[in-house]
Specification:
7-stranded mixed β-sheet, Endonuclease, Chain A, single chain, 2 domains, alpha+beta, about 280 residues
């Protein structure tokens, strides 16, 4: 079995084949045609497992059974096999999505408060971010730093209200974002990192020390329809720890903070020391 790379078996696993099916198909590709005995000896897999794999491969159209004694099998071409497997995946994915979307509409609500939970990993954040943008029906409130700016690139939303604050020193970014999200329902502002760091007059003495610990580029705050939030604290960390919740108290608190920031950064309120 050393001739069949583990990476190939894993790839075929991801396409829906079991370990035995992946190994048997790969062996058939190498053998051109073989009977069960050939495969048992070559792969060191039990006789029942080989026959079960052959039957399933033939049923899926990945192997052809020849009516001989003993029966011999040959693999369809790798190109055809991958096309068949991808086609099955796409059909299954389409059906699953249709059924899951129906279940989502029938979501069971309880009187209990939603718990807080976390998501780890940049990919998980990207999927959740785009999912929330896509599901929004009424309003999106979002503030992000440059690290997560690629998440909004090429993203499209329905004709709903959007409040977007981006912390960035990139020239021309606000014009680019306004072109991406045109319409009167989009309220978009790009603020500099210096402006973000300027404390309001009522800030406690610890504000300056706190800001030294922050990584502004890591900021991510997203509220959708005042029902669900996604938040990454803007502090340095080797791993991504994300707060994601539908907890009403947490959503309301971040919403109020978001409204304050919108007013602080965009309504002409001058919080610089020289203005005091």
């Amino acid at each position: 079995m050393e001739s069949i790379p583990a990476s190939l078996v894993k790839s075929l696993n991801n396409l829906g084949l079991s370990n035995n099916e992946a190994n048997v198909y790969a062996a058939l590709v190498m053998f051109d045609n073989a009977d069960a005995k050939d495969l048992i000896e070559y792969l060191s897999i039990s006789k029942p497992s080989v026959y079960e794999a052959l039957d399933h491969l033939a049923e899926m159209g990945l192997a052809v059974k020849r009516i001989t004694k003993p029966a011999r099998y040959s693999a369809v071409s790798p190109h055809m096999a991958i096309d068949l497997l991808m086609g099955n995946h796409k059909k299954s994915a389409k059906l699953a999505l249709e059924k899951l979307e129906k279940l989502e509409l029938e979501k069971v609500r309880t009187d209990k408060e939603e718990a807080l939970w976390t998501i780890y990993g940049d990919k998980s954040v990207e999927y959740k971010f785009r999912d929330l943008f896509g599901k929004a029906k009424n309003h999106i409130r979002c503030m992000i730093g440059e690290r997560y700016l690629p998440l909004v690139e090429n993203i499209q939303i329905k004709d709903i209200s959007l409040s977007l604050i981006v912390i960035s020193d990139a020239p021309g970014l606000e014009k680019k974002l306004r072109a991406q999200f045109p319409g009167k329902n989009a309220d978009i502002h790009v603020i500099t990192s210096k402006k973000f760091a300027t404390p309001p007059p009522f800030a406690p003495p610890e504000f300056e020390e706190l800001h030294k610990l922050m990584r502004v580029e890591n900021t991510l705050e997203l509220i959708v329809d005042d029902e669900e939030l996604l938040m990454i604290p803007p502090f340095y960390s080797d791993t991504v720890s994300v707060l994601n919740t539908r907890n009403k108290g947490a959503v309301l608190q971040l919403k109020l903070f978001s409204q304050f920031n919108l007013k602080r950064f965009t309504d002409g309120m001058d919080f610089s020391p020289t203005a005091q």
